[in-house]
């Protein structure tokens, strides 16, 4: 369970007496409330790499100095889950170390850039949707109070993360503001435990990068392009069934094949900060994906407060499968640093 306030038997009186939020906050802040918490963070590949450090040295140091357990989900995914578990004071120390590490990364990246204003540190928590109402408060009163008292920006996503009952809560600001903000969020979570079962968000693995040349499909493995016969067939099938002719091609006539098979629609959600790698400069990448797959692809405009964009793919099953594969390939190449593909 992403936020579990597992009170010890000696603390039964604490829960039965229902301390005020202010009293509880001071106890949490001072580490006097010896409650074990679990907080889940959603991070992109580059952020995870920064936390792990060379040969895992950074995360090892964070574990030792904070006393918190820090686990990072496995898998070749554009996103990873970082789980931090421990007493409240250990969790705050771990958060402080992560926030300051991200600020250091921002400072280092700015030394090579012409940007003059320093962007804020941003962390994304993953919170059970059943607790988000308490975090927002009546008419947004609680979230407003947290913003004003900590100086951090806090946004609760309107939609649940895919295949889960959790929402992303984005916190941005200075490291100190973020730490104060996390303390206040922990108080709310302890006061309002999750209702019912929580289905945790698990990021989906991304596929291997792929390129097409001479009507053949190749997957990129290390420095080599390996022929991929299944994808080649899918590509050829998509070209045969395409509802509109890609540029410079004529639709081949295949006996017994319906020239316009029924079109269906599939929707994907992509993190805002990865949408650029799919669109490409002046739309070059998305146009390539449209041509290769033969599918119609629409990207929804960004909506305020949402960290994701919706992509709608329309076409035959073959068109859609290929478009999905190509989009995943772009995401993988971006996250693994192979963005030139």
Which key terms come to mind for this protein?
12 helices, globular, six-stranded antiparallel sheet, 341 residues
Order of helices and strands: HHEHHEEHEHHEEHEEEHEHHEEH
Biggest sheet record: 6 strands, antiparallel
Global mean pLDDT: 77
Fraction of residues in β-strands: 15-25%
Which shape, going by the Cα principal axes? globular
Your description of this structure?
This protein is α+β, with helices and mostly antiparallel strands. 40% of the residues lie in helices and 22% in strands. It has helices at 12-17, 21-29, 45-52, 57-66, 88-110, 129-136, 141-150, 175-191, 229-241, 275-279, 284-293, 317-335, and strands at 36-44, 69-72, 79-87, 121-128, 153-156, 166-173, 210-213, 216-221, 224-227, 264-271, 296-299, 308-315. The protein has a six-stranded antiparallel β-sheet. It has a three-stranded antiparallel β-sheet with strand order 7-8-9. A hairpin with a 6-residue loop joins β2 (69-72) and β3 (79-87). The longest helix has 23 residues, at 88-110. It is globular. Residues 3-21 and 242-259 have low confidence and may be disordered.
């Amino acid at each position: 369970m992403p936020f579990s306030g597992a009170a010890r038997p000696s603390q039964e009186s604490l829960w039965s007496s229902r301390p005020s939020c202010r009293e509880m906050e001071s106890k949490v802040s001072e580490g006097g409330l010896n409650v074990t918490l679990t907080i889940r963070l959603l991070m992109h590949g580059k952020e995870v790499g920064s936390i792990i450090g060379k040969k895992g040295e950074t995360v090892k140091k964070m574990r030792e100095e904070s006393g918190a357990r820090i686990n990072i989900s496995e898998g070749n995914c554009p996103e990873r889950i970082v789980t931090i578990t421990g007493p409240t004071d250990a969790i705050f120390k771990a958060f402080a170390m992560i926030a300051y590490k991200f600020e250091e990364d921002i400072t280092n990246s700015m030394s090579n850039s012409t940007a003059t204003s320093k962007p804020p540190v941003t962390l994304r928590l993953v919170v059970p949707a059943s607790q988000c109402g308490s975090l927002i408060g009546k008419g947004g009163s609680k979230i407003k109070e947290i913003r004003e008292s900590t100086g951090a920006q806090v946004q609760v996503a309107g939609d649940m993360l895919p295949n889960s009952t959790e929402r992303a809560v984005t916190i941005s600001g200075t490291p100190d503001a973020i730490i104060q903000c996390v303390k206040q969020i922990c108080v709310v979570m302890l006061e309002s435990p999750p209702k019912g079962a929580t289905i945790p968000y698990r990021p989906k693995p991304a596929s291997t990068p792929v390129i097409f040349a001479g009507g053949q499909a190749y997957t990129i493995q290390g420095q080599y392009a390996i022929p991929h016969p299944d994808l080649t067939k899918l590509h050829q099938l998509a070209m045969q069934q395409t509802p509109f002719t890609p540029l410079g091609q004529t639709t081949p006539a295949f006996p017994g094949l319906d020239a316009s098979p029924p079109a269906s629609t599939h929707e994907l959600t992509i993190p805002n900060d990865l949408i650029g790698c799919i669109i490409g400069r002046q739309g070059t990448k998305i146009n390539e994906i449209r041509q290769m797959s033969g599918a119609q692809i629409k990207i929804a405009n960004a909506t305020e407060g949402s960290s994701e964009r919706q992509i709608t793919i329309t076409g035959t099953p073959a068109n859609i499968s290929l478009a999905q594969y190509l989009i995943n390939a772009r995401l993988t190449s971006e996250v693994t640093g192979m963005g030139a593909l």
